[in-house]
TrEMBL record:
A Pfam family assignment: PAS_9
The keyword Flavoprotein is annotated on this UniProt entry: yes
Keyword annotations: Chromophore, Flavoprotein, FMN
Stretches of the chain forming a coiled coil according to its record: none
Domain spans labelled PAS: 28-78
PROSITE patterns: PAS
Protein name per the record: PAS domain S-box-containing protein
Taxon lineage: Bacteria, Pseudomonadati, Pseudomonadota, Alphaproteobacteria, Hyphomicrobiales
C-alpha cells in the first residue's frame, strides 16, 4: 500500500486540472497515489481500482517494447528528468487507445525523488490541433504546478522539451490503432 503523504496543495491542484493526471510513489513498483477526474474519464477506472497499483495495468498484454524501454530508462536513471512516449493502453471496458504518456520526477529539495508525475492524452483518433492544444495545457499545468510544489518543498524535473512533432505523433498513433483494430486484438 502507498506510504507517501501527498501535499494538500498538490491534491487540490490535481482536482482542478482539466487534463488527465496521475501521481505515483517513487520507489518499489511505483503504486498510484492519486488520479484525477480526466484520468478516470479517459480510462474508465475508479480510484479504488487503480490507487495502490502500478499504472502498467492499463497496458494489459500489449508488447509496448519501445515505450517500456524508455519508461524503464527514465525510472532507473538519474539522467532522464522526463519522458514522453506513445504507449498502447486499454480502457477498463477493453477498448485500446494510444496514450501519449508524459512522466516527470517530483523531487524534495534534498534531491530525493518523492513522486512520479504523469499526464495522459489519447492520441488514437485525435487531430494534430487537439494535441497542440493539449501540449499547451500541459505546459501551463507544469508552469502553474511549480509554485504549488514549492510550497510543499518539491520541484518538478524536466520540461516539455520532450514533446515530439504533433503531426508525426498523431500519424503514428493512427497506424498503431489500425494494427490494434485488426485481427488478434479484442
Amino acid at each position: 500500500m502507498p506510504t507517501q503523504t501527498i501535499p494538500a496543495e498538490l491534491t487540490q491542484y490535481f482536482e482542478g486540472s482539466h487534463i488527465a493526471l496521475a501521481l505515483a510513489e517513487a520507489g518499489e513498483d511505483n503504486p498510484l497515489l492519486l488520479v484525477n477526474e480526466p484520468f478516470r474519464q479517459l480510462t474508465g477506472y475508479r480510484d479504488e481500482e487503480v490507487i495502490g497499483r502500478n499504472c502498467r495495468l492499463l497496458q494489459q498484454d500489449a508488447p509496448n517494447v519501445e515505450a517500456r524501454e524508455k519508461i524503464r530508462a527514465f525510472l532507473e536513471s538519474g539522467r532522464h528528468a522526463s519522458v514522453r512516449t506513445p504507449i498502447v493502453n486499454f480502457r477498463k471496458d477493453g477498448r485500446p487507445f494510444v496514450n501519449l504518456l508524459y512522466m516527470s520526477k517530483l523531487k524534495a529539495l534534498s534531491g530525493e525523488v518523492r513522486f512520479l508525475f504523469a499526464s495522459q492524452f489519447d492520441i488514437s483518433r485525435s487531430q494534430p490541433e487537439l494535441l497542440s492544444a493539449y501540449d499547451a495545457e500541459l505546459s501551463r499545468t507544469l508552469a502553474r504546478m511549480n509554485p504549488t510544489l514549492a510550497e510543499s518543498g518539491l520541484v518538478i524535473e524536466g520540461s516539455l522539451m520532450t514533446i515530439a512533432n504533433s503531426v508525426a505523433t498523431v500519424a503514428q498513433a493512427k497506424l498503431t490503432l489500425a494494427d490494434l483494430d485488426g485481427p488478434g486484438f479484442p
